[in-house]
Task: inverse folding
């Protein structure tokens, strides 16, 4: 466990994922859903990716779990490169990373009982005997705050919040190091969301779990994340600690999202930004900033390639103006490096 | 803790069989199917020998011979009852054979995708490009009619139906979250197919199965009707209808009518049954 403190659980470098489809005339159409994404997730850390639907954030998680193939890039899990592994070679490693789905009702086989759905995970690797499996299943259900009697029911006979708890319980049965949470609360009632967030947070503390959280609900992200990446059309446009992103957001898109969610923290800097229009893959072709058609600060220079650049310590932004001319987009002058404590 | 002692699938099986029993008692489709099956099973032991020349030739329906006698004085009622066994058997075995071949192929095609899937589709399309009956007719004419060959041919022309049906039912499940979850649990393709995908398409396939038995019976009857199926004097509904056609003109309607009604009743019942199965599925799925 000691080495795990010093090395990331997951390291993603320059990940690219293309979806190829054909239109009515059989012409190939390539949509780059993920375009050069890099990040690391450390033990006991929640790394969140936020963005609108269609930004490619769920695709990142699915590629990492090898539920779909990557086009390019590197993904290493506990130091081992996994993208080139075949399904069979990768299978034993699946125990290290698991997934919690958006819609728990879809994530359970409608015909199977909760117990047999959980057993699939309890029997991973064939290490537990049948009675040890039963015991592990009961413990897992208690661990998420439910009573083991629920195991005899079918998914349709369990409420959404309970089922999402069971989904978490199920993935923890293999004792993973990293959990990919794909919009874990967005199909739940608002009153239930807080419970799931609290459950996930407390499990993280006890099990030293790393979370890769993908969500569009900024409140849930705020409650759970340590670091946040904001994704737009396949690229990260801003990465920083939670407080940097929520209080000192520099990219117009991040600020637009916060404004739209009416989530400005009391201490947040900069003026509100209103984005126009909608996310559209039409803007994927642009070599420059992809937000140009929607951004109120657009200038000719924005159509030049925009690399991720550091504004404040540890905070990366894909916007030249935020770095070079913050005042022009309604941000205060950044403190010079060293001012920050 | 009683729940814990119970194996995973027991509770479900008990609940489902209870529902099935209630359904059988409630719906005419199951009832009428049960009657037809009973006639096919025990009927032949209770009626006259279907090949015996028992009475006067071409007598109409009477108290002694309910459906009358044919041109050789054979008891048409006895022949219709005996034929029920033969027609149902052929229909069942042919349809079952078609399921056994078509369902796994269709599921595999949907799951694998790619060239394998495309090949399966093209082959099944080329089968379906011919009218089923014409195709069956051609093959039987080439191979010569005998009961095993008839069963094989009827099964063969039905395989594409199951292949395509299963394929289209499996396709949306392949990318469903619960299948992805099973992959996360480290399950192999074969296990996922067997445990998650096939059980979830079984109702659709069984609803089709019932229609298909009916269809198989119709093909058998049609082949026999044109003389390429079961040979007389063996009692078979289609052959019997053909047998009586010539006498229709002279007013001896009963020779063809009763076997024809038997086909009609059986086919209608099987189709109705299929609707019921599909309906039952919708009810059991719509819990929430």
Result:
């Amino acid at each position: 466990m000691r080495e795990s403190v010093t090395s990331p659980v997951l390291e993603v470098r320059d990940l690219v994922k293309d979806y190829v489809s054909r239109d009515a005339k059989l012409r190939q159409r390539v949509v780059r859903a993920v375009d050069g994404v890099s990040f690391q997730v450390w033990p006991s850390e929640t790394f969140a990716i936020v963005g609108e639907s269609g930004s490619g954030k769920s695709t990142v998680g699915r590629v990492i779990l090898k539920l779909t193939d990557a086009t390019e890039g590197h993904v290493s899990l506990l130091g081992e490169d996994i993208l080139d592994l075949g399904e069979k070679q990768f299978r034993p490693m699946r125990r290290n990373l698991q997934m919690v789905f958006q819609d728990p009702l879809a994530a359970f086989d409608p015909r199977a009982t909760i117990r047999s759905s959980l057993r699939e995970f309890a029997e991973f690797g064939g290490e537990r005997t049948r009675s040890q499996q039963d015991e592990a299943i009961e413990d897992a259900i208690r661990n998420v705050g439910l009573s083991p009697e629920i195991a005899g029911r079918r998914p349709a006979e369990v409420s959404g919040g309970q089922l999402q708890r069971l989904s978490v319980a199920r993935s923890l049965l293999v004792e993973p190091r990293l959990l990919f949470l794909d919009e874990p609360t967005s199909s739940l009632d608002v009153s239930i969301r807080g419970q799931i967030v609290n459950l996930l947070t407390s499990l993280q503390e006890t099990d030293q779990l790393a979370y890769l959280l993908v969500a569009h609900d900024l409140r849930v992200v705020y409650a759970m994340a340590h670091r946040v990446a904001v994704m737009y059309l396949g690229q990260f446009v801003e990465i920083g600690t939670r407080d940097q992103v929520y209080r000192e957001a520099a990219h117009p898109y991040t600020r637009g999202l916060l404004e739209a969610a009416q989530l400005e923290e009391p201490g947040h800097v900069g003026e509100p930004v209103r984005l126009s229009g909608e996310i559209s893959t039409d803007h994927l072709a642009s070599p420059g900033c992809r937000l140009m058609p929607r951004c109120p600060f657009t200038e000719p220079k924005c159509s030049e390639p925009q690399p991720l650049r550091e504004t404040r310590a540890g905070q990366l932004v894909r916007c030249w103006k935020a770095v070079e001319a913050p005042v022009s987009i309604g941000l205060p002058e950044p403190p010079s490096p060293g001012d920050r404590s | 803790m009683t729940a814990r002692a119970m194996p995973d699938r027991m509770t479900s099986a008990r609940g489902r069989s209870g529902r099935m029993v209630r359904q059988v008692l409630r719906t005419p489709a199951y009832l009428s199917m049960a009657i037809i099956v009973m006639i096919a099973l025990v009927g032949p032991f209770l009626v006259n020998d279907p090949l015996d020349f028992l009475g006067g030739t071409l007598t109409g329906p009477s108290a002694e011979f309910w459906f009358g006698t044919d041109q050789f004085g054979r008891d048409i009622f006895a022949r219709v009852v005996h034929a029920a066994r033969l027609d149902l058997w052929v229909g069942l075995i042919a349809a079952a054979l078609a399921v056994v071949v078509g369902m796994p192929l269709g599921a595999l095609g949907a799951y694998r995708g790619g060239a394998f899937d495309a090949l399966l589709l093209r082959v099944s399309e080329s089968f379906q490009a011919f009218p089923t009956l014409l195709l069956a007719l051609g093959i039987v004419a080439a191979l010569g009619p005998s009961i095993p060959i008839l069963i094989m041919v009827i099964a063969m022309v039905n395989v594409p139906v199951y292949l395509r049906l299963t394929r289209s039912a499996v396709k949306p499940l392949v990318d469903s979250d619960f299948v992805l979850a099973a992959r996360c649990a480290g399950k192999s393709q074969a296990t996922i197919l067997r445990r998650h995908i096939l059980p979830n398409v079984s109702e659709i396939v069984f609803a089709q199965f019932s229609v298909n038995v009916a269809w198989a019976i119709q093909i058998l009857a049609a082949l026999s009707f044109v003389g390429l199926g079961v040979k007389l004097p063996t009692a078979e509904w289609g052959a019997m209808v053909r047998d009586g056609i010539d006498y229709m003109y002279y007013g001896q309607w009963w020779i063809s009518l009763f076997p024809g009604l038997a086909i009609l009743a059986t086919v209608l019942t099987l189709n109705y049954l299929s609707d019921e199965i599909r309906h039952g599925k919708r009810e059991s799925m719509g819990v929430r």
Summary: The radius of gyration of chain B is 23 Å. Chain B has one domain: 69-285. Residues 1-12 of chain B have pLDDT under 50 and may be disordered.
